[in-house]
Amino acid sequence: MLLFKKVLGFVFLYVLISASSSAQKPYVSNPPEVSPMPMKPEMTEIWEPEVKVITPGKHTGDAPSDAIILFNGKNLDQWVSQADTTKPAPWKIVNNDYVEIVPGSGGIQTKLKFGDCQLHIEWSAPDVVENGGQMRGNSGIFFQNRYELQVLDSYKNRTYRNGQAGSIYKDHAPLVNAMRTPEEWNTFDIIYTAPRFKADGSLDYPARITVLHNGVLIQNNVTINGLTLYIGLHSYPAAHGEDVISLQDHECKTQFRNIWIRRL
């Protein structure tokens, strides 16, 4: 009888321990298997709207079919005098090929206004080198009539780095000096993003610019810090929208040709 009671006690103790262990284990049901949606190539293909078709130029520097031709060597019909916008551009066309600044006549500006754009322009310093520093082939390309990309003969011509060819004048120096000789033509290919302003007139985000000089990247999507000033720090003017592109008369016989632009 005593032996029976001991065996019964051990059985009871075993059942109690087993029940206790089972209570400590969380119950986990087997989650249902979810089959992922089978992917097909066409699920990530976007067909509409179709990308606009344009015809690129046949040669490097040629205008594509959607460009606005600002100067093709024949006339300055797309430009006016900056001193008096009711008068034609006063610069001299040479050999039905290029236009040369007439020193002292003043700058010229486009009739059309632009904001974001792609601009192609070719330029050359005077063939005869007469001066140095900022008086060698100086001019400038002003976007929205405010923000200057410097034109200058920087071939073996030392000047302040944020004033040489390809600089955002008195703002950003170019990454490298990619100038050709005064007897050769230079090209600028430019992507310009205009500044944006808030409803209250304050700056939302600044202008940015990328420039290739003779095919070499010299400004890599840099921020333009404001209105181009000869003296003083740059800052943004009052809010504005699209405006003209202007070319500067800096008393040098700088030459331009093959100017075209695309709105972005």
Average pLDDT score:
90
| CATH T-level topology | Jelly Rolls
**Which architecture name does CATH use?**
Sandwich
CATH superfamily: Exo-inulinase, domain 1
Outline the low-pLDDT stretches: 1-8, 10-17, 19-23
Radius of gyration: 35 Å
Number of domains: 1
Highest CATH level, the class: Mainly Beta
Helical segment tally? 1
Characterise this structure.
This protein is mainly β and 264 residues long. It has one domain (68-263): Jelly Rolls (Sandwich). 9% of the residues lie in helices and 27% in strands. It is built from one helix and 15 strands, in the order αβββββββββββββββ. Strands 1, 3, 4, 6, 9, 12, 13 and 15 form an eight-stranded antiparallel beta sheet that branches. The protein has a five-stranded antiparallel beta sheet with strand order 2-5-14-7-8, with no helix packed on it. It has a two-stranded antiparallel ribbon with strand order 10-11. The longest helix has 23 residues, at 2-24. The N and C termini lie far apart (102 Å). Residues 1-8, 10-17 and 19-23 have low confidence and may be disordered.
